[in-house]
Amino acid sequence: MSATEASLALPTGTGNVAVDLARLRHALLAEPSRAGVVLEDGVGDEDLLPAAVLVPIVRRMSEPTVLLTQRTAHLKDHPGQISFPGGRCEVADRSPAHTALREAAEEIGLASGQVEIVGYLPEYLTSTGFRVTPVVALVTPPFELRLDAFEVEEAFEVPLSFLLDPANHQRHSLHYRGKLRYYDAMPYRGYFIWGATAGMIMSLYRALEVSPR
C-alpha cells in the first residue's frame, strides 16, 4: 500500500450499548493528569518516557465509531498490532495534545482541522517503558487519510458501542519477562485489539460508566 492510499474499512455491525456523545465531555479529564493513572500488569510507577495517542471518535451518522490502525509487520516495536495514532513526545511538542495531533497527521494524514479535542483519559503506563496520555477527540467526516506505508498497514473503524459493550471485553494472559501478565482484549471481525490499546479503551469505558447520565 502506498502512502497516498488509505485503506479504511467501515463497520457493518454494532454492539448493544447506546452511546451518547453528549456525556463524553463530562466523563473525561479536562486536562492531562496523573490522577487515576492506569498501570499495565507488572508495571511500576517509575520514570517512563512521555508519549501521547489520539483516541479518534468519528461522528458517523449511523453511530459513532473509533478509528484504529494496524501497524506494519516489519516494525521493531509492536509489529502488526492494533493501535491508536500516537508516539513519544518530542522536545518541540507543546503538550500531549500537540504530540497526538502531530503523530496522527504523520501516521494517517488526519488533518487537525477536522479534529476536536474533547478531553483526556488517565495516563496509561506501559510495560514497554512509556507514560501515555490518551487524548480523546471527535472527528468530523468526510475525511481522506494518507497512510504512512512504513508504519501503518491499514486504518479501520470499529463501532464505539461494540468497544463499550462488556460482552466484548476479554481478559487474557501471557508470560512476559519471566512473569505471567494479564491484559485486556476485544476481538473484532478478524482484528485482535489488545494490550495498551484495549487498556485505554477500558479506561474510556470506565469513565463513561461512572459519568452522570
UniProtKB/TrEMBL annotation:
GO terms for molecular function: coenzyme A diphosphatase activity; metal ion binding. Residues 48-182 form the Nudix hydrolase domain. The lineage of its organism: Bacteria, Pseudomonadati, Pseudomonadota, Betaproteobacteria, Candidatus Accumulibacter. This is NUDIX hydrolase. Its cofactor is Mg(2+); Mn(2+). Keywords: Hydrolase, Magnesium, Manganese, Metal-binding. Pfam families: NUDIX. NCBIfam families: PRK10707.1. PROSITE patterns: NUDIX. InterPro entries: CoAse, NUDIX_hydrolase-like_dom_sf, NUDIX_hydrolase_dom. It comes from Candidatus Accumulibacter aalborgensis. CDD domains: NUDIX_CoAse_Nudt7 (cd03426). Gene3D superfamilies: Nucleoside Triphosphate Pyrophosphohydrolase.
